[in-house]
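Quick sanity check, Lipid-A-disaccharide synthase:
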Amino acid sequence: MDKPLTIAVCVGEASGDLLGAHLIKALKQRCPNARFVGIGGARMIAEGFESLYDQEKLAVRGIVEVLRHLPEILKIRKGLVRQLTDIRPDVFVGIDAPDFNLGVAEKLKAAGIPTVHYVSPSVWAWRRERVNTIIRQVNRVLCLFPMEPQLYLDAGGKAEFVGHPMAETMPLKADRTAAREILGLPSEKTVFAVLPGSSMGEINRMAPLFFQTASLLLQRYPDAQFLLPAATAAATARLTEILAEPEFAKLPIKMLEKQAATACTAADAVLVTSGTATLEVALCKRPMVISYKLAALTYAYVKRKVQVQHVGLPNILLGKEAVPELLQHDATPDKLAAAVTQWYDHPEAVAALEADFEQLHLMLKKNTAELAAAAVLEEAKSAH
């Protein structure tokens, strides 16, 4: 009897679990009897996935945290490679988490198992030399952004643009009135959203700066309300501590559990730390000011390595500075408040930006899971 098609998948964190669940659903439609095995989270397990290890053990952020858990992570990686080499899946799909997954892929590819990496690392932004390493480690890369595949093709690899899942799940027209109703906010109120980032390092650097900016905005707009979505329980705890400091204790800031898209849609303007969140704000069609600060030495190193004119995803994708970026020395409360005010005081500029963001949304909106499933099956067949 033929063994069923076996697809190995490995994800490192919650966002990967969601991509993985969508991919498994799309693959099951084409191959109802397929077996899915590897490392996955709750959403993938709900789709019938067999997880050989607890996915939470891989969701470690920050250098110190990673170092502390490194022996365990390496042990899991070794065990996973050993088990998958025994199982001999038809294809291995590493979803995001490149530091973990590309190492697994390299060993499986050497053992004759086709490998796919789903979500290209930001090679277009910095450390472009990684492209050559990645195409040695995997047979194919599935990219979320349209400018990525060419880098792999130019280096002799296989890659394609499958669209961004966020562009599929978010509405093309953002409903500000509905978002305000959900959050219990009057339609005419001045509302700003503040997104200082999700990792502890980002929160510690950016939250005080953003709260100082909020104080300045409050002087200009005394009835303003600030929304602060927190991604995790740890983020909520740390933000609560910072807000309890005397200089911030009186700020009218409403903390929300997750709900970032609702908060951004409801806001007149958004102050956001550079990262994936900037794309979410763009898909909410809201004006934003992007900021980032790093330790001085890290910044000097990164600045030398960065190969793009802009750091914010909306600006990179649109190929122009559609929204202001205030980084490092320019990231001051005065400059940030002035940039937010510019948006608030110029509705005609906001209307033009909304049109740009709608174009961006359409550019990224594809049938992502279907395209990814087709590519994965193509690689699986290539081995036979």
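Posting the structure with no commentary besides this: The chain has 17 helices and 13 strands.
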